[in-house]
């Protein structure tokens, strides 16, 4: 995880502080507490991974933000963080462009494993981006 950039989009200050504390030891971490903050900084920070909460306490939720991010050609791996694990939630996570999910509250071990896996996918995507038109990879 060294030198990777992780963006945490989480409105709960305690959750954000804990994740930031855990991850700052081995990655560059940026925190956004609101949808506006995410939209203003996502492409400036250019994260490798986005840890996205679903319920952000405003008009826009994590699904809306990831849909917007993907429509702007955002390439980061997106891991949703949710206290819900229903078929509907999982379907929405993948439908909007999410790559994975973690149940809240995440353990450090699960968080690190999911991030490591996402970084591997990110590295593979850099070598051979997956697109409907590119069948040679």
From TrEMBL:
The modification 4-aspartylphosphate is found at residue 53. Coiled coil: none annotated. Residues 5-119 form the Response regulatory domain. CDD domains: REC. InterPro entries: Bact_response_regulator (IPR050595), CheY-like_superfamily (IPR011006), Sig_transdc_resp-reg_receiver (IPR001789). The keyword Hydrolase does not apply. Keywords: Phosphoprotein. GO terms for biological process: phosphorelay signal transduction system. It holds the Pfam family Response_reg. This is Response regulator. It comes from Aquitalea aquatica. The lineage of its organism: Bacteria, Pseudomonadati, Pseudomonadota, Betaproteobacteria, Neisseriales.
């Amino acid at each position: 995880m060294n030198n990777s950039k992780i963006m945490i989009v989480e409105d709960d200050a305690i959750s954000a502080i804990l994740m930031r504390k855990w991850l700052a030891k081995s990655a560059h971490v940026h925190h956004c507490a609101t949808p506006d903050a995410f939209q203003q900084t996502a492409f400036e920070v250019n994260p490798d991974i986005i840890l996205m909460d679903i319920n952000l306490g405003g008009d826009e939720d994590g699904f809306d933000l990831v849909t917007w991010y993907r429509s702007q050609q955002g390439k980061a791996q997106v891991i949703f963080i949710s206290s819900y694990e229903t078929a509907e939630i999982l379907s929405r996570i993948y439908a909007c462009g999410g790559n994975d999910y973690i149940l809240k509250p995440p353990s450090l071990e699960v968080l690190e494993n999911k991030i490591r896996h996402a970084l591997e996918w990110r590295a593979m995507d850099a070598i051979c981006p997956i697109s409907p038109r590119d069948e040679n990879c």
